[in-house]
Amino acid sequence: MARRILLTLLLSLTALLGLLPAVQAAPATGEPRAGGPAAGRAGGEEPYPTTEEIDRARADAEGKASSAAALESALTAARAELDRAGRAAEQAVEAYNGAQLALTRARVEEDAAAQRAAAAETERAAAAEDAARLAAETYRQGVGAELSALNALLGAHGPREAGDRAAAVGQVSERTRQILDAATSTATAARSASAAARAATETAGKAAAEVGAAKARAEQRLAAQQGEVAAAGRRREQLLAELAAARNTTVELERQRREALEAVATREAGSAARAAANAKAAPSAAHPWSAEGAAAAIAFAKSTIGLPYVWGGEGPGGYDCSGLIMMAWREGGRQLNHFAADQYAQSTPIGYRQLRPGDLVFWTDTGRAADIYHVGLYIGDDQMIEAPRAGMPIKQASLWIMGTPDFYARP
């Protein structure tokens, strides 16, 4: 938070310095000129911001606020698209897993079919060899199958033996033919099944490749959307920092103008004593502290607990740290600027042992009051109410949550 606030203040200073050339070049408006932090204007006039310059600063801040709102809407849409891309990628991955499983099963079936085909071919070859051996034996006897069968019949002893031999010869020949035909048919069917399994594997492989390509596209879409969301998030942070700088610039210009006009009024009055008294008068003298005012400020701050931190927020939907203090003490009867460093300057410095409910506590990285970047409202018992930072709601917290405060003051 400290780094972010320091960056915001640096951007604010940069934006303010960028406006000073325009301030120097602005034509005279007839308004009295008073001393300010910038160097002299043309014609020897002392510079201070004009109402036109302040209006431009406000318009710039409003433009950045509008851009921030539009970017916030775009970021919400991008995050929704990221969710859709994530779901699509998850579905693509599961489809890819299913396709890979189907391909594995097809390959297993192809291997099994190939093995069955090889076994059937082996059986067919064995049957063919048996048939060939029978044919060769018949050939060696020098007669055809029919003649061999006739010789067997003629060599029989009696009609009954001849009948038995004839039946045996016919059965062997028919059985051999059946075995060979069956083996050939089985081998043909096995080859066809193997070819079908191979074709199924090729189909599954093509499907797996297509699903894999779809998976790659879904993952690329997801990665691209993640990049878009990250870039939009970085732009959002930058734009919010620019918005804070623009609003701080407006506050600074208004402060310069107010101080310059007060100086003009003092000079026109012609009273050095009055000028000295005004310079030394503490805001608490004009608006003395009261328990009732502090109680009202604390009550208001407690009513905002849980509301979001909003850059430059002044309510009612959200606040930043100095906006919360400004509105709380407005309820307590004190007018404070929407700028933590000014709120310290507008209050009476005190020590830790003097703290009372309603007092303010401040933090800075440099030890200089001009560089204060955070303020909280003390409520007693070492507790405070604060608007911490973007992304965290207004809350009650320990006084020491950010380390020892650097300054204490009473509005």
Word description of this protein:
The chain is of the alpha+beta class. The chain folds into two domains: about 1-280; about 285-410, Alpha-Beta Complex (endopeptidase fold (from Nostoc punctiforme)), CATH 3.90.1720.10. The chain is built from nine helices and six strands; from the N terminus they run αααααααααββββββ. A six-stranded antiparallel β-sheet has the order 1-6-2-3-4-5. The two termini are about 25 Å apart.
How many beta-strand elements?
6
Low-confidence stretches are: 1-46, 273-286
Provide the number of structural domains: 2
Q: Give the assembly state of these chains.
A: single chain
Strand content: 5-15%
Brief rundown of the structure:
This protein is an alpha+beta fold. It is built from 9 helices and 6 strands, in the order αααααααααββββββ.
Question: Layout of helices and strands, plus pairs?
Answer:
Blueprint lengths: L1 H24 L25 H90 L4 H10 L4 H111 L2 H9 L2 H4 L4 H13 L17 H11 L8 H6 L2 E3 L9 E5 L7 E9 L2 E4 L8 E4 L8 E4 L1
Antiparallel strand pairs: 1-6, 2-3, 2-6, 3-4, 4-5
Features:
rod-shaped, six-stranded antiparallel sheet, 411 residues, endopeptidase fold (from Nostoc punctiforme), single chain, alpha+beta, 2 domains, 68% helix
